[in-house]
Amino acid sequence: MDIAVIGTGYVGLVTGAGLADFGNDVICCDIDPKKIDALNNGQIPIYEPGLDKIVSRNVDEGRLRFTTDLGDAISRSRAIFIAVGTPPKPDGSANLTYVENVARTIAAHMNGPKLVITKSTVPIGTGRMIEQILEESGNGQKGSVVSNPEFLREGSAIEDFLKPDRVVIGASDEESIELMKEIYAPLHSLEIPFVVTNVESAELIKYAANGFLATKISFINEVAQICERVGGNVQDVALGMGLDTRIGPKFLQSGPGFGGSCFPKDSSAMATIARAHGYPFQIMEAVLRVNDDIKQRMVTKIVDALNGDVKGKTIGILGLAFKPDTDDMRDSPAIPVIKGLQALGARIQAYDPQSMENSRAIFENIDYCDDAYGTAEGADAIVLATEWNAFRALNFERIKKAMKVPNLIDLRNVYDPQRMKALGFYYSSVGRAEDVRKAVSA
């Protein structure tokens, strides 16, 4: 099928490349000429493992191309995916300006029946709004609107698109449903479940899924706080919980809270949608409060590990991105941690395998290092903030020699407390009472 994907950000580029890999002819569109020029020159604007290969393969085989000419792409295509940003407003609601602009552009260039698919995460009612725009601003051609939310995890987005847990289709007519099944035809052979529902339910599924996963994270982070107070081990508690098939082990890893492009934005939007419809979503509101609080508790944990004072101390931060295998800094827990330490007078030096360039627009007065060992040089403490594989098997003899004080604050519970004690480190983590916490001053 001839398909246009409007927006070449994280969702749009992965979607376009994935749809082309399914055998569709795909035009990815963006109004940013620099981004399109880069893509046409083989440069991928985001870091996502495997994305460069799937883009290159489908460009070489003639199924994928890039353009700034939205009108031409719309005219050529039977199906049009909207994959533009929906950033949060100050009140937590989604900003639909880009979605509305795209809908008007589609309406202006409709030269036949079009299937318009919202891939962007949008609040309930957006599909109906797009339908109204197509009816009012179009030229009499039929425009059918479908909700097809994405469930892409940064760091494993290609696998998630090509072999998803499910495909959600929210549509109002059988023709649209059949066209969507044609687009995703290769997934039928993999026996991937298709959830076919109305537009409103499909729009809500994305928010509900991310809100629930965020709830699991905030819940285990609260359990971690209790473990530290009663002598428990949050990893053992999470294991005991996760073995219950009704609960499952995923998203029960305690740490500095959730971040990224989805969970904070979607959880906040979910709460805002509920309020707008006269219902206070109390669990979601609490999840957001807990997530904010836990990030500040991480600052306190680091300060406590340095005997209550970080002023003038050098602290090395290992990891800046919100999770491994991405360069995404959006709502990264490292941001409030670093800024909180800086506000208390700490000097920060940091290293991340992918996100240091993006972090330069966020932080001031940070010394960026070439690797973990440079980050440890002269440090009073190092903080493991993102669990990159590169940080899971460090040479701690080398780390210890480089540091002013052998003090490790492990916000991701990567290392074993007793091993760190045997190596001569002062060590603290999240929710594990056996930590060796107290450090000495240099």
Overall tally of structural domains: 3
Q: Tell me roughly what share of residues is in helical segments.
A: 40-55%
What is the CATH-assigned architecture of the largest domain? 3-Layer(aba) Sandwich
Radius of gyration: 24 Å
Q: Helical stretch count? A: 18
Strand share of the residues?
Answer: 5-15%
Low-confidence stretches: 438-442
- In round numbers, the mean pLDDT is 94
Number of strands: 14
- CATH level 1 name of the largest domain: Alpha Beta
- Which secondary-structure class do the elements indicate? alpha/beta
Fourth-level CATH superfamily of the largest domain: NAD(P)-binding Rossmann-like Domain
| Shape assignment | elongated
Q: In angstroms, what separates the terminal alpha carbons?
A: 66 Å
Described by strand count, sense and barrel closure, the largest sheet is:
6 strands, parallel
Cross-sheet strand order for the largest sheet: 3-2-1-4-5-6
CATH topology of the largest domain: Rossmann fold
Structural notes for this entry:
The chain is α/β, with parallel strands linked by helices and 442 residues long. The protein has three domains: 2-197, Rossmann fold, CATH 3.40.50.720; 207-289, N-(1-d-carboxylethyl)-l-norvaline Dehydrogenase, domain 2; 294-428, 3-Layer(aba) Sandwich (Rossmann fold), CATH 3.40.50. It has 18 helices and 14 strands. It has helices spanning 10-21, 33-40, 51-60, 70-76, 97-108, 126-137, 157-162, 174-183, 186-189, 199-230, 234-242, 263-276, 282-305, 334-343, 356-359, 372-376, 396-402, 417-422; strands at residues 2-6, 25-29, 64-67, 79-82, 114-118, 143-147, 167-170, 194-197, 314-318, 347-351, 366-368, 381-384, 407-410, 426-428. The strands form three sheets. It has a six-stranded parallel β-sheet with strand order 3-2-1-4-5-6, sandwiched between helices. It has a six-stranded parallel β-sheet with strand order 11-10-9-12-13-14. Helix 5 (97-108) runs parallel beside helix 6, helix 10 (199-230) crosses helix 12 and helix 10 packs parallel to helix 13 (282-305). The longest helix has 32 residues, at 199-230.
